[in-house]
């Protein structure tokens, strides 16, 4: 595979099937592929997700195979400056295609989209496994910690 073989496209509502197919084997895009796939949305829910104007979802494909994905949210800003920034929610490269530039290519497409849409910053709550990757791609550690609360 060369980078030229990878096609990256931004999904829309008509790509619901591709989103569902990805969810059926998304453990192969995880740090630990032995976990169970996350579970697919229904067709209508997948259409609604991809039709949400705040959702950006790119797929990297080699022929008909999904080799990687990148999911971001558009976060509006309440103050002066760029109208919004991106929150990088999740990304993954298929286990068999890691370390061949697919993750970097996905981020390059995201950055091109940001420039075209007047955005200057992207944030990622990264797992430890991926931190080195993000740093190689120009991200820097910021202050603070990420907290989460699950309602019991
Ligand atoms: C993190 C991940 C998306 C990287 O994707 P990838 O397609 O393998 O990345 P690339 O091949 O484009 O790598 C770009 C650069 O980062 C480096 N890199 C890749 N993964 C790395 C890692 N885990 N740690 C340190 N450096 C890494 C590569 O060597 C490459 O460096 P180079 O340009 O100097 O050669 C992939 O490992 C993955 O899917 N991990 C499991 C899911 C995950 O952790 N997602 C992030 C959630 S926050």
Structure report:
This protein has 152 residues and is an alpha+beta fold. It has a single domain, classed as Aminopeptidase. Helices cover 28% and strands 24% of the residues. The protein has a five-stranded mixed β-sheet with strand order 1-2-3-4-5, sandwiched between helices. Strand 4 (84-93), helix 3 and strand 5 form a beta-alpha-beta unit. The longest helix is centred in the C-terminal third of the chain and has 15 residues, at 102-116.
List keywords for this structure.
152 residues; alpha+beta; five-stranded mixed sheet; Aminopeptidase; 24% strand; binds coenzyme A; 5 strands; globular
Could you write a compact summary of the structure shown?
The chain has 4 helices and 5 strands, in the order E-H-H-E-E-E-H-E-H.
Task: Compile the SSE list and pairings.
Elements: E1 6-10, H1 16-24, H2 43-51, E2 55-62, E3 65-76, E4 84-93, H3 102-116, E5 122-123, H4 128-136
The structure holds coenzyme A (COA).
Query: Biggest sheet: strands side by side, in what order?
Result: 1-2-3-4-5
Total E-strand runs: 5
- Rounded to the nearest angstrom, the distance between the terminal CA atoms is 46 Å
Q: How many helices does DSSP assign?
A: 4
Radius of gyration: 16 Å
How many structural domains in the coordinates?
1
**Tertiary shape:** globular
What is the name of the CATH architecture? Answer: 3-Layer(aba) Sandwich
CATH topology: Aminopeptidase
The largest sheet, given as strand count, sense and whether it forms a barrel, is: 5 strands, mixed
Give the name of the CATH superfamily: Gcn5-related N-acetyltransferase (GNAT)
